[in-house]
């Protein structure tokens, strides 16, 4: 069943007409499908984080959505991070910075870093979380250029990419190379972290995704070089891609034969399991010669499984504090999959099921109610946006109370005239 939806001011072409033929037509099924896609993206970003309970009691959470409160911890104060639930309950009227996801972090809300605020969800907390790590992201600054995002003074459109070691975000033009297309790689390690994790250069020659070309000062001025690859380079890259594809195919076949199936698509292999192969894979790669550069590196989805897990390498990872590199559940992709898989049992939309069970008249009535709600809620929230004020829980409650009251009055009048 299709219905004419009212367009908001400033929407796409065709919205200025008066006649019904010029009005955009969408079905309620399309609206619900779009809403489901937005909810899916939100679940992926939040990674299954609890919006009602503070994560502090869980200790250092392996990976979670985090926020920084610039109202409570402005630049110059000690950096602090808060969980999703505390961002709602304790800092709802404050200025928050979305940090996306950080690993091994414990919620700081209400501890000694917050001079005049006590956590409403868990008042009794330790003074500090000594295991937490902080960077300039907690002040809204990113990359080696230490700029905010979005940056009102930056006229260059540039993708921000997160380093999976230090977890800072970098402009593509500040990584020492021109990054491959975003769909060609899954993870990035920045220049500084490549120096720290120097052993990765031995793996980069065989497993990293080739960058396009070296970046130079011209790119800082907004000029991007388009360097054509030589025929010899193209042949070499194709050869490497074929070899990697064959290797991945063989691995999948082996997994299907030897490994039991799991009910969850987000299941991760065990961490730190020693390889049955004799010797050290890292030493074998280093014997072939290692080329180091002052650039970032880009990696495919399965590269962590290639890292050696012999006793010496595991000790090295521990000393460098990068044990997480051998954990494929540490990846952001695994984190996002967790957020979506946690909702697998709730995939069926009850509203869609109800709509399908209705007759045509009932569907039209429901669509009209939906359009009324959408229009009135949009107008109501626009007032807050124009005034620059925060929408509070009581404001939403007040809106729905008024909406129900207007609905009852309309229904009463209809009953009066129809009697």
From TrEMBL:
Basic and acidic residues compositional bias, start-end: 232-254
Residue ranges, annotated region (Disordered): 1-21, 229-272
Compositional bias per record (Acidic residues), positions renumbered to this chain: 1-10
ZnF (UBR-type) ranges: 52-124
Superkingdom field: Eukaryota
InterPro entries found in the cross-reference section: UBR7, UBR7-like_UBR-box, Znf_FYVE_PHD, Znf_RING/FYVE/PHD, Znf_UBR
GO CC terms: cytoplasm
CDD domains: PHD_UBR7 (cd15542), UBR-box_UBR7 (cd19677)
Molecular function terms, GO-annotated: ubiquitin protein ligase activity; zinc ion binding
Domain UBR-type: 52-124
PROSITE patterns in UniProt: ZF_UBR
Catalytic activity, reaction form: S-ubiquitinyl-[E2 ubiquitin-conjugating enzyme]-L-cysteine + [acceptor protein]-L-lysine = [E2 ubiquitin-conjugating enzyme]-L-cysteine + N(6)-ubiquitinyl-[acceptor protein]-L-lysine
Keywords assigned: Isopeptide bond, Metal-binding, Phosphoprotein, Transferase, Ubl conjugation, Ubl conjugation pathway, Zinc, Zinc-finger
The keyword Metal-binding is assigned to this record: yes
EC number of this enzyme: 2.3.2.27
Pathway in which this enzyme or protein is active: Protein modification; protein ubiquitination
Role played: E3 ubiquitin-protein ligase which is a component of the N-end rule pathway. Recognizes and binds to proteins bearing specific N-terminal residues that are destabilizing according to the N-end rule, leading to their ubiquitination and subsequent degradation.
Protein's name in the database: Putative E3 ubiquitin-protein ligase UBR7
Natural source organism: Coturnix japonica
């Amino acid at each position: 069943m299709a219905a004419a939806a009212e367009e908001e001011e400033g929407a796409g072409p065709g919205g200025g007409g008066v006649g019904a033929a010029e009005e955009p037509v969408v079905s309620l099924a399309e609206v619900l499908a779009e809403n489901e896609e937005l909810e899916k993206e939100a679940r992926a970003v939040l990674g299954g984080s609890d919006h009602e309970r503070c994560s502090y009691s869980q200790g250092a959470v392996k990976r979670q959505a985090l926020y920084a409160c610039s109202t409570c911890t402005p630049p110059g104060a000690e950096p602090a991070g808060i969980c999703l639930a505390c961002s709602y309950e304790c800092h709802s009227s404050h200025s928050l910075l979305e940090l996306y996801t950080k690993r091994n972090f414990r919620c700081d809300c209400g501890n000694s870093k917050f001079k005049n605020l006590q956590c409403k969800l868990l008042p009794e907390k330790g003074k500090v979380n000594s295991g937490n790590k902080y960077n300039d992201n907690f002040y809204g600054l990113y990359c080696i250029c230490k700029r905010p995002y979005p940056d009102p003074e930056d006229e260059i459109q540039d993708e921000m990419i997160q380093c999976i070691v230090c977890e800072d975000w970098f402009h593509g033009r500040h990584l020492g190379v021109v990054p491959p297309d975003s769909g060609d790689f899954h993870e990035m390690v920045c220049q500084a972290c490549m120096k720290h994790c120097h052993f990765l250069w031995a793996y980069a020659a065989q497993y990293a995704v080739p960058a396009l070309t070296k970046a130079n000062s011209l790119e800082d001025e907004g000029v991007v070089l388009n360097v054509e690859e030589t025929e010899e380079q193209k042949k070499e890259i194709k050869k490497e891609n074929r070899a990697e594809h064959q290797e991945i195919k063989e691995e999948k076949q082996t997994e299907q034969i030897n490994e039991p199936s799991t009910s969850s698509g987000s299941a991760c292999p065990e961490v730190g399991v020693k390889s049955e192969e004799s010797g050290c894979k890292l030493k074998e790669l280093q014997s072939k010669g290692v080329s180091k550069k002052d650039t970032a590196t880009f990696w495919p989805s399965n590269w962590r499984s290639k890292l050696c897990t012999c006793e010496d390498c595991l000790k090295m990872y521990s000393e460098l504090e990068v044990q997480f590199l051998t954990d494929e559940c540490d990846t952001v992709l695994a984190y996002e999959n967790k957020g979506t898989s946690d909702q697998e049992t709730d995939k069926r939309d009850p509203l869609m099921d109800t709509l399908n069970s209705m007759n045509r008249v009932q569907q039209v009535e429901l669509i009209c109610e939906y359009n009324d709600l959408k229009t009135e809620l949009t107008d109501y929230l626009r007032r807050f946006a124009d005034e620059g004020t925060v929408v509070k829980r009581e404001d939403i409650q007040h809106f729905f109370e008024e909406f129900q009251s207007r609905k009852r009055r309309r229904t009463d009048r209809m009953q009066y005239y129809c009697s």
